[in-house]
Amino acid sequence: MTAFEVAIAPLWPYLVLIMVGFLPSEVWRALGVVVSRGLDERSEIIVWVRAVATTLLAAVVMKLLLTPTGALAAAPILARFGAVVAGVGVYFLARRSVIAGVIAGELILISVTYFALA
Questions:
Q1: Do 26 and 50 share a domain, yes or no?
Q2: Range of 44's domain?
Q3: Beta-carbon-side half-sphere exposure of residue 46 (alpha carbons within 13 Å)
C-alpha cells in the first residue's frame, strides 16, 4: 500500500456521504436558486411552497420527538420536548438566530439526558 492509500482509506465513508448524500440535493438547491430569480416572494405559488416546506419540517421534528430511533431514543421524552421549547425560546430571545436556537436545544438535550441517565 502506498502512503496515499493509507491516508485516504479511512476517509472513504465521508467521500461516499458527500457523493450520495450532499451533491444530489445540492444540485437541486442550486437549480432552485437560479430558477427562482425574479419571482415575487408574495406570489401564491411561493407562499404555498413555503407552507408545504414548513409543514414537512414540522412533521419531521414531531416524528423525531415522538418516535426517535438510535441514540435519541435513550433521551427521555420530556428532555426532547424541553430541548425544543428551549431552542425556540432562545431563537426568539437571540433576535431570530437559528444557530443560537439549535445550539441551545442541543445543549439542553445533551445535558438533561446525561444527568437523567447518570
A1: no
A2: 39-66
A3: 11
Answer yes or no: do 20 and 47 share one domain: no
* Shared-domain flag, residues 85 and 62: no
Among 102, 25, 8, 33, residue whose Cα is nearest residue 61: 102
pLDDT digits 0-9 by tens, 97-115: 999 999 999 999 999 999 9
Q: Against a cut of 0.85, is the pTM above it?
A: no
Number of domains in the chain: 3
Residue 65 grid cell: 420527538
pLDDT in tens, 44-80: 988 999 999 999 999 999 999 999 999 899 999 999 9
- Give which of 37, 111, 44, 40 is closest to 76, Cα–Cα: 111
Contacts of residue 89, Cβ cutoff 8 Å, sequence gap at least 6: 104
Same domain assignment for residues 43 and 3 = no
92 and 110 belong to one structural domain: yes
